Amino acid sequence: MIPAFDQYKERFEVESSDVIKPGLTAIERAMEMLDHPELAVPTVHVAGTNGKGSTIAMLEAICREHGLKTLTFTSPCIEDVHDQIKINNRPLASFQMDDIFKQLKAAGLSGLLTDFELLTAAAFVACRLYQPDIAIIEAGLGGRFDSTNVVRPIVSIVPSIALEHTNFLGDTIADIAYHKSGILKPHATAVLGQLPEEAMAVFEAEATKQHVPLKVDGHDFEVLIGDTYVQGLLEIHQLTRQLKGAHQRHNMGIAITAFIEVAKKHSLTMHDEAIRKALAHAAIPGRFEQLSRNVFLDGAHNPASAASLRKTIEELYPDTPVHIVMGILKDKDVDGVLRELEHVCDDFTFVNVEREQSRLMPAETLMAHSQAGHKQTAESALQAVLAKRSEQGIVILTGSLYLLAQWRHTLQHALRAQ
């Protein structure tokens, strides 16, 4: 379910299915019916397991600081469907979504697509309507057979590869890499994070097949401890990040490297000070986001992202008591997530949520998976946070991104009122 999406579907009588159907046949037909809006502007295509959102946020900010008009398409939403398509980092307004749906309706797309395919089509129509200088498009599931993979990018980005969505993508790293490497397109530079060896072999083979130059973190570029970017003779010093955690240093390097490629395509002069300013302010909701003095929000929904959260806690709060409030969908690797977080926390509260009940792991079931010494359930995330925030230490609300979206708004208002 995409919050607020159905109201547009109903108003314009455009039907779509809520099932997941990987494959490009339907979206390719839709692009033909819409006269190929996916080709309207230059694009950067982003896939991978973790780090996509943070890398996009930093790249988008750098592009804007250099005077480029941006459009981003990301998943999932933070509040509702409007913030999945942003222009210059501002969510689409209702009248803009109306204009987009008028074109979707006129093209005769009703009943032909899944919800995500229809939303993807909406993002491409937005590209044509609002003509950004660069569109940054995040793949929804996998890459090769994801509906976003009708683009012809000038740069492809894959920050990380780990096991995820194994029912769709396969149960080995090589299987996952096969799907993600599908976003590599002829002659468009691919910027890669530090991928597992078996994943890198898949990407290198695909790059050779597609004639794609690779830029790999730790080999072709790197960000040194202290946040100095280095690529060959190029060095950018005194970088600071709004996004915290050692893993964000790698995402920052990927974003800068991708921008260098974008700047070449646009014949732009790159300015170190503009990059510094962009990175100092780039942020993304739900990535170790500070909601109040000692309350944070982080979407650690798989073992790899939980490991990143663990390392961030170890780096920033090594001697501080930690309490974690958690809710998660039952298709996630719950045990893998918990084992990582239990390294830094022995006090958990597990909560239920109002939406996504059919996909949710009940709080009692989640608690049974935990090996923490102190654990309990609560009726709501707000109840749990308010009960713990007065204690010594920090409170971290974590779990599936879809769940954090609905908690974030409620918590922001409640904590401001305290």
Describe this entry's structure for a reader.
The protein is of the alpha/beta class and 418 residues long. It is built from 15 helices and 17 strands. It is 41% helix and 17% strand. Strands 4-3-2-5-1-6-7-8 form an eight-stranded mixed sheet, with helices on both faces. Strands 12-13-17-14-15-16 form a six-stranded mixed sheet. A hairpin with a 2-residue loop joins strand 12 (289-292) and strand 13. The chain is globular, with a radius of gyration of 21 Å. The mean pLDDT is 93.
Write the layout of secondary structure elements.
Layout: H1 5-12, H2 25-33, E1 43-46, H3 52-65, E2 70-73, E3 85-87, E4 90-91, H4 94-106, H5 115-130, E5 134-138, E6 155-158, H6 166-169, H7 173-180, E7 189-192, H8 197-210, E8 214-216, E9 222-224, E10 228-231, E11 234-236, H9 246-266, H10 272-281, E12 289-292, E13 295-298, H11 303-316, E14 322-327, H12 334-341, E15 347-351, H13 363-369, E16 374-378, H14 381-388, E17 394-399, H15 401-417
Parallel strand pairs: 1-5, 1-6, 2-5, 6-7, 7-8, 13-17, 14-15, 14-17, 15-16
Antiparallel strand pairs: 2-3, 3-4, 9-10, 10-11, 12-13
Helix pairs in contact: 3-9, 3-10, 4-5, 7-8, 11-12, 14-15
